[in-house]
Amino acid sequence: MRLSRYFLPVMKESPADAQIVSHKLMLRAGLVRQTAAGIYAWLPLGNRVLQRIAQIVREEQDRAGAIELLMPTLQSADLWRQSGRYDAYGPEMLRITDRHEREMLYGPTNEEMITSIFRDAARSYRDLPRTLYHIQWKFRDEVRPRFGVMRGREFLMKDAYSFDLDEAGARHSYNRMFVSYLNTFARMGLRAIPMQADTGPIGGDLSHEFIVLAPTGESDVFYHSNWERPAELSSVDFDDVDGLQTIVDTYTADYAATDEKRDEAREAEAGAELRQSRGVEVGHIFYFGTKYSASMGLKIQASDGSDVIPHMGSYGIGVSRMMGAIIEASHDDRGIIWPDSVAPFAVGLINMRADDAACSAAADALYKQLQDAGVEVLYDDRDERGGAKFATMDLIGLPWQIIIGPKGLEKGVVELKRRATGDRVELSPDEAVAKVKG
Q: Is 193 found in the same domain as 240?
């Protein structure tokens, strides 16, 4: 993509109402624009990142055995009355009346709808276990939306729902999602710490939230210093009940808790290794038994002919919130530093002298070579000074920059820069293409 033809409205200064780093950089880098309180338009560069994040989430859900569908944003109030949550949910729910005076709502979550769908289709134990998910927009009418996409009113979310014959099966489904989340966040370059959490309006008695450490986070978190060390998760067999349980036990052995769930005894055991920070919640998983299946009349015929009420769980990842969390965890004073896996483009190609015929010809040729090699490239072909081009590329944070200038061309080389480290090296054009492709 040529930057001269792209829509990338970058800003030199941060808006006064942007309070945290991710909000400031998302606005300055032309990723989003606010259209109403807590509601954002996703501009082309931001939308590319959003789709990258969603695709990683999708791949890891599929790998864990979940099945994708798509449910609507608007829901009938009658569904929520069946579960008893319509009046209990609170003012965060946006309630709507259509032209026929039917009560509707903009879904903040989908436990009722998915239970209704499954209830009308599943009949016997052969239909279980199943985990269904979708990636869909949600709306929660926050009284004070702030921090950009970190606490907005409209947000993109992956929510999954598991159905099992009994508690043992449901806990295995829970563990599958627990491990899937570890993989998901690791692929985005994040270390997300699972912490035992309150279940809130979702319900149930088992819940973990996944927290990314960030100074501007919304929650106080306390954790053992072991969580600051890199961790590797080897290949996983999602059908191995004992193996998954061992992974979950391993990842919850070291102390980690939000302020609401602090355990003084375990903190005393951690001693000098106890750390305190702020954190951003990027995912939340719940096991809540038969809360929704029982209230909504979901019954399954067991192998012995008796009726059983399936056990359920739900599992959310804030896809749009993830973008803010990644920026909070990966930036410097010049701008964003995207992990390779979610970057909107792999490389930024900078023509230092758009008014020089030789430079432009070499840059055009390298642009085509990168495209032919399958490398997604943003080509800054604008007639701007070099400093402005460097500032834009550092701000938007693409993993690689290839710089073409007259002096390098005389030597037959281009300059390759790694955004995360600032390291620069002179290579032939072919070597630079091979490096960024690798």
A: yes
